[in-house]
C-alpha cells in the first residue's frame, strides 16, 4: 500500500490522497477577474488525480495584486466568476479545490510575465498604483517606495482579508490558504528585514507577528470549521538578519492556537541579497519535518518534490503529512496519476481518458517503464448523478 495515496482529513476536509497542487500565479486575469485560461488550467489540474488543487494567489484588495494580471476577490464580479470555476471544475473529479489569499504589499504594482516581466516595478505610464507595507522601504533601489501602513490601512487590509474569505466560502471553495511567505505583505510584517516599526506591530518577534495573526484570526472567525484553513510561511529568509526556523516554529504554535489547520513550509524570496542555497530535491522538506514534530498542525512539504518515490518516502518516513507540487504539475498535468502507477496504485481516471489508464493501454509500460504492474480492473462509466464509481475488479482477456 502506498502511504502517499492514503486519505487524510485536514481540519474538517477529507482528501482522497496526500498530493496537493500548489497555488501558481497565471498572470492572466483582467481587472482581477478570472478568465477562460483559469477555467482550463484549473480544470486540467482537477483531473490530475491530486487530492487537492489550490488556485493561485488572489488579492483581497486591488492594491494587493502583484500585477495587472493577478486575480482578485474583492467585488461581486470576482466572486461570481470564481463560483463558476468552482462549480464547473468540481464536476470533473472528486478532487477538492482551494484558493490562496495574498496581499503583495511592497511587491505589488510590478510587470507581469505577460508584459516582459523582469522583476520590475511598474512606471506611472503603465498604470502603477500606491503600494503599502509595514515600513516605507522599497524592494530595491529601482522600485517604488511603499507607504507605511497606519491604523486605518491596517484596519482596511484586515477587513479586506476577512471579506475575501467570506466571498471564497460563498464561491464554494473547500480550503483557504493565507499567504505569509515569499516577501509578500504578511511576511513583510513578520521579518525584521522589512519591518522597522516601533509600535505594536514591530520590534520584537511577538510584535512582528501581531498583524499576520490578526489577519489569521479574522479569517478563522468566518471560515467554516468543516472546511480547511492553512497558512504558508517562510521557514528561513536566508538572510543574516531575517527569520529562522525557530521563529517559524514560534509562529506555527501561535497559528495552531488560533485554530489554523495546516501550514506549508516554504523559504526565501524576501529581498534582494538573500543568499538562497541551490535548490536540490526536497531541499525544504526538513522544515515541514520540524513543524510536524513540534506542533499538532498538518504539515505540507514543498521544494523540488518531483519523483513519486521521493514523495512516498516523505510521507512514509513521517517528515510531512502532505506534499505540494507546482512546476512538476505544469510539466506533467497527470503527475499524480503517473505517480500512482509508479507506486502500484490503481487510480480512477475520467471516463473520457480511460483508454490511457495503465491497465487499459498496452503502450503505458513503454512510455512509463518504471511503473509497477497493476491488477487488471475495469472502471465503470460515471452515473447520471455525476459521482464517480470506484473501479470494479474484473478479469480482462484478449478477444
Write a structural description.
By secondary structure, the chain is an alpha/beta fold. It has two domains: 338 residues, TIM Barrel; 47 residues, no CATH class. The protein has eleven helices and 15 strands. Strand 3, helix 1 and strand 4 form a beta-alpha-beta unit. Helix 1 packs parallel to helix 2 and helix 2 packs parallel to helix 3. The longest helix is centred in the middle third of the chain and has 21 residues. This is NADH:flavin oxidoreductase/NADH oxidase. It comes from Flavimaribacter sediminis. Its cofactor is FMN.
- Give the termini distance in whole angstroms: 32 Å
Average of per-residue pLDDT values: 91
Task: Estimate nothing, just give the exact number of structural domains.
Answer: 2
Shape descriptor reads globular
DSSP strand tally: 15
The CATH top-level class label of the largest domain: Alpha Beta
Extract low-pLDDT stretches.
381-399
> What's the total helix number?
11
Q: Could you spell the SSE succession in H and E letters?
A: EEEHEEHEEEHEHHEHEHEHEHHHEE
Provide key terms for this protein.
single chain, 399 residues, alpha/beta, TIM Barrel, 2 domains, eight-stranded parallel barrel, two-stranded antiparallel sheet, 11 helices, 15% strand, disordered C terminus, flavoprotein
Short description:
The chain is an alpha/beta fold and 399 residues long. It has helices at residues 36-46, 76-90, 151-171, 185-190, 205-222, 245-258, 285-294, 308-316, 327-331, 335-342, 364-367, and strands at residues 8-10, 13-15, 19-21, 52-59, 71-72, 96-101, 132-133, 147-148, 175-180, 228-234, 262-266, 298-301, 322-325, 377-378, 392-393.
Amino acid at each position: 500500500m502506498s502511504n502517499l495515496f492514503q486519505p487524510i482529513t485536514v481540519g474538517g476536509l477529507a482528501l482522497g490522497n496526500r498530493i496537493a497542487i500548489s497555488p501558481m500565479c497565471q498572470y492572466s486575469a483582467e481587472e482581477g477577474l478570472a478568465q477562460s485560461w483559469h477555467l482550463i488550467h484549473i480544470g486540467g489540474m482537477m483531473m490530475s488525480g491530486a487530492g487537492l488543487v489550490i488556485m493561485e494567489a488572489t488579492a483581497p484588495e486591488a492594491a494587493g495584486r502583484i500585477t495587472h494580471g493577478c486575480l482578485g476577490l474583492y467585488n461581486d464580479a470576482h466572486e461570481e466568476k470564481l463560483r463558476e470555476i468552482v462549480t464547473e471544475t468540481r464536476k470533473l473529479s472528486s478532487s477538492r479545490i482551494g484558493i490562496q489569499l495574498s496581499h503583495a504589499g511592497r511587491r505589488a504594482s510590478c510587470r507581469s510575465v505577460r508584459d516582459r516581466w523582469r522583476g520590475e516595478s511598474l512606471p506611472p505610464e503603465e498604470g502603477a498604483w500606491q503600494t503599502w507595507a509595514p515600513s516605507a522601504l522599497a524592494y530595491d533601489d529601482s522600485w517604488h517606495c511603499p507607504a507605511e501602513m497606519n491604523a486605518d490601512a491596517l484596519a482596511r487590509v484586515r477587513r479586506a482579508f476577512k471579506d475575501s474569505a467570506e466571498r471564497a466560502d460563498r464561491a464554494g471553495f473547500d480550503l483557504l490558504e493565507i499567504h505569509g511567505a515569499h516577501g509578500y505583505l504578511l511576511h513583510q510584517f513578520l521579518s525584521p528585514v522589512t519591518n522597522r516599526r516601533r509600535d505594536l506591530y514591530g520590534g520584537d518577534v511577538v510584535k512582528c507577528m501581531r498583524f499576520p495573526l490578526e489577519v489569521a484570526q479574522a479569517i478563522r472567525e468566518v471560515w467554516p470549521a468543516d472546511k480547511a484553513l492553512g497558512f504558508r510561511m517562510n521557514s528561513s529568509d536566508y538572510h543574516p538578519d531575517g527569520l529562522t526556523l525557530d521563529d517559524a516554529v514560534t509562529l506555527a504554535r501561535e497559528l495552531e492556537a488560533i485554530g489554523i489547520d495546516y501550514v506549508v513550509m516554504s523559504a526565501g524570496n524576501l529581498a534582494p541579497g538573500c543568499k538562497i542555497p541551490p535548490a536540490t530535491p526536497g531541499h525544504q522538506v526538513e522544515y515541514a519535518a520540524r513543524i510536524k514534530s513540534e506542533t499538532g498542525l498538518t504539515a505540507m512539504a514543498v521544494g523540488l518534490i518531483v519523483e513519486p518515490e521521493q514523495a512516498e518516502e516523505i510521507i512514509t518516513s513521517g517528515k510531512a503529512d502532505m506534499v505540494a507540487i507546482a512546476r512538476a504539475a505544469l510539466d506533467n498535468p497527470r503527475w499524480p496519476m503517473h505517480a500512482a502507477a509508479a507506486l502500484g496504485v490503481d487510480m480512477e481516471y475520467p471516463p473520457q481518458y480511460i483508454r490511457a489508464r495503465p491497465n487499459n493501454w498496452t503502450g503505458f509500460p513503454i512510455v512509463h517503464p518504471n511503473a509497477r504492474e497493476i491488477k487488471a480492473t475495469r472502471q465503470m462509466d460515471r452515473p447520471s448523478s455525476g459521482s464517480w464509481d470506484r473501479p470494479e475488479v474484473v478479469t480482462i482477456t484478449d478477444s
